[in-house]
Amino acid sequence: MDHQMIGSRGSTSTKGQDDPHERFPRAENRNNSDLGSWASGRLPVVTVVALLEGLWITLHVSGLLGPLASLTFPLLTFGAIVATVVGVRRYQPRSSWPWYGLATGFTLFLAGAIVRTTSHSLGDLTSHRALLPDLITIPGYLAIFLGLMGFARARHRDRSTRIDTALDAAVAALAALALGWLFLMNPALGLTSSPLKVRVLVAAYVPISACIVAVTAGLAFSTGRKQSTADLLRLAAMVLLLVGDVLYMMLETHAVLMPETLVDIPYALAFVSYTACALTPSMRLQTEPDVEAQNSATVGRMVILGLALSIPGLIAISRPATSDADRAVLGGVVFALTAVAILRMVRAIHGHARSEARLVHQSQHDALTELPNRVGARTFLDDALVRAHATSAPVALILCDIDRFKLINDSHGHGFGDDFLLKVAARLRRSIRPLDLVARIGGDEFLIVVQGMTDDDEVLHVAHRTRRALSEPFHINGSEIASSVSIGVVIAEPTDPDLTAEGLIRDADTAVYQAKDAGRDAVVVFDRGMHDRALQRLTLQRDLRHALERNELSLNYQPIIDLPSGRVSGFEALLRWSHPTWGQVAPLSFIPIAEDTGLIVEIGAWVLEEACAQLATWRRDLPHGNRLEMSVNLSARQLRDPAMVDRLNDIVRAANLPRGALTLELTESSLMENPTLAAEHLGRLKALGVSLSIDDFGTGYSSLAYLQKFPVDHVKIDRAFVLGLESEDSSDETLIAAIVAMASALGIQTVAEGVEGTEQAERLERLNVDRAQGYLYSRPVEASLIPGVVTRLDSAARGRLTAVPERFSA
Ligand code: C2E
Ligand code: CA
Ligand code: CA
User: Fold this and answer.
1) Cβ neighbour number for residue 75 with a 10 Å cutoff
2) Residue 204 to residue 99: CA distance in whole angstroms
């Protein structure tokens, strides 16, 4: 044992020849992660120190040191202490107390050694033996033990891994104890010539050493990462320390005889190893948490455990117990080893089951909210459907989709978005009954599965309550977020044998889609027709992509009439789609799809080109054709398109149209989507000589004041107001009069849409509306029919003009 070894030397404290303080640059800060060589370009200090110490040991062994040989051990012990302080300050490990634990141990060894030198207690097993050196040294071992425990603790944050490591260590300790008992303790205790307290004290070193071996082994083999240099050096130091202890114990009990210079070697090398360990950059890793450590069955660990477990058996076979005490101790060790091994096995099996359960849990749950995910929801729903089938109680799905969640995420950041979702999840959790389930099945989609509600109204009531709950503002990081939710409800009839969880979720999704379409913040209950419509929409969307290239699109033209004269002033181009299987598809069915998918940009460009070319032909070929104008509808999406202006410029030039011949029709809502951008783009379009018209006027924001904001030439009074002119009620007439007054004040022309009857036409004329368009004059027709229509309308206008005096005279 090293207490004796050190004690046999003179112990003058001496400073390491290679004082590391001189050489090491200071750690700038804690974040300094330079774990490579300290001395840039120079030999690393750790190598220099190790070489010097190695040299000293070589001189020591060869006997060249002379009287200086007595300095070897105090010197190297002191070197280890200094190296600890230097290493900790240089590398700033996350936790330094395990290192200082080891240093404290070495300091006590050093102190014990000094005391021992003065009392000459080595090999003295008589009642005169001074006990003080041992009483100082043994706490030194405890300090080392605690230090090593500190490393193990810092590494394994997870309690379960810690217990496993401790059990592995216990196996190693028990095996070491068996050997120690056999070769050291039993003989030491059997020295009947010595007083009992001395025997006990000497024997006490064995179990202590065994514990240290155990912790070291546990540390070395339980790591999930590759062993670092510092790991290996510390392991070597501890093993060498143990070898030294065993040799000294044998020396103490006179079991062996050898020159002390040789017996000192393991200790000397132990301190060199340790010094190198403390000065190696990877020392910092010793107290880093070992993330991957899952007590993997490394080969090294298995070998150690296997050896440890077989040792008692080997002893039992090779050496029949000699005394009752011997038998009792070995029996106890075997019993304890078996117990620990079984415990370890049971824990491993449980651990396996636990990690399997954890995997299943992870696969069925959402990591953010801890709610079941889509898979979990489906599993639950499948079970619920089976139960529902048995009890014929309906199951209902309430699917909540947060409105404009992307906006929240984009404007406040993803962390904020996560907080928001957590709050939503918490509100939903609170709102459901114990029987029901709330799951997060998509980014901002939460599904509630409601069981055992017999009444559809009851389910609707829950859906509306949920909608209200999520409409209450959220408070996140001091800001208030107002949000709304679109909800789709599906009520499943349990008698339906074709019900599947996935199918129900899809239906709920369709209903949510409808709720969004209806302007969001709404609850929509799914019905079969909805499914068909959704399917149809999908088909349309797919087919529309090819409609243009397959020549399925065409334009119809509807004449626009100059009101006092009744002559044709121009046309509105209206898009038609002739679907190969469904025939004519209404623009109101496919244009929104074209807008949603962005296809409208391409299609719209084609419409403009086609309409402009057509107008150019008519202006050239029809009688008095050069008065004719063309109106083309423009979607908001097209207005946003930055390439729009250039494209239109090309088109107008190609058709060689004069200024004012082309009018673009835009709805109020498409202008209001982004008024600033709209005003800018409209200004550039105007500069090309294009006229602008507000379509469906009066149905949108209806603010006449907005007219001033945009360079508008025409407003098209919506069909709804024109329709009102049929009745006696004069409110629509008043409204039209107001529009006309306002428009003419601003120099804007008015066009009435959807004129179907002569009565309406006359009243519009009296209201001084400039132009009219509607079935009364002509339905939208294909281009080839237009010359005939124009001729008919123009001659009718002439006829009417001559008829006017008659009518007035009547
Ligand atoms: P809109 O711009 O308001 O077009 C007028 C709609 O009213 C046309 O419907 C037209 O056929 C219809 N209409 C005309 N006179 C009468 C009438 O006297 N009575 C009734 N009941 N209806 C009349 P259509 O052709 O079905 O177009 C519907 C909508 O599709 C258009 O409404 C327009 O918003 C859009 N649209 C049509 N073609 C295009 C296009 O090329 N581009 C864009 N972006 N949208 C278009
Ligand atoms: Ca229009
Ligand atoms: Ca319109």
Assistant:
1) 24
2) 25
Map 540-592 to HEC letters. Answer: HHHHHHHHCCCCCEEEEEEEEEECCCCCEEEEEEEEEEEECCCEEECHHHHHH
695: left (phi over 0), alpha (psi -120 to 50) or beta: beta
**Highest-confidence range of 200-204, 680-684, 778-782, by mean pLDDT?**
778-782
Asked if the model's pLDDT at residue 683 lies above 80, the reply is yes
- 475 three-state secondary structure: strand
Ligand nearest to the CA of 631: 2
Q: Residue 718: which of 737, 698, 735, 704 has the closest Cα?
A: 698
- % of the chain surpassing 70 pLDDT: 88
Spatial distance between the Cα atoms of 185 and 201, rounded to a whole number of angstroms:
10
C-alpha span between 21 and 145 (Å, rounded): 28
- Write out pLDDT tens, residues 163-176: 877 787 888 788 87
The residue contributing the CA closest to ligand 1 atom 20 is 754
Average pLDDT, the chain: 83
Which ligand sits closest to the CA of 588? Answer: 1
Q: Is 9's pLDDT higher than 70?
A: no
Ligand 3 centroid, distance to 430 Cα (angstroms): 48
What's the 590 CA to ligand 1 centre distance in angstroms?
12
Q: Which two tokens stand for residue 589?
A: 């069915």
> What pTM was computed for the model?
0.51
Beta bridge mates, 490: 397
**Residue 520 CA to ligand 1 centre (angstroms):** 26
What SS3 state is found at 782? strand
What integer is the mean pLDDT of 96-110?
93
Specify the pLDDT at position 808. 41
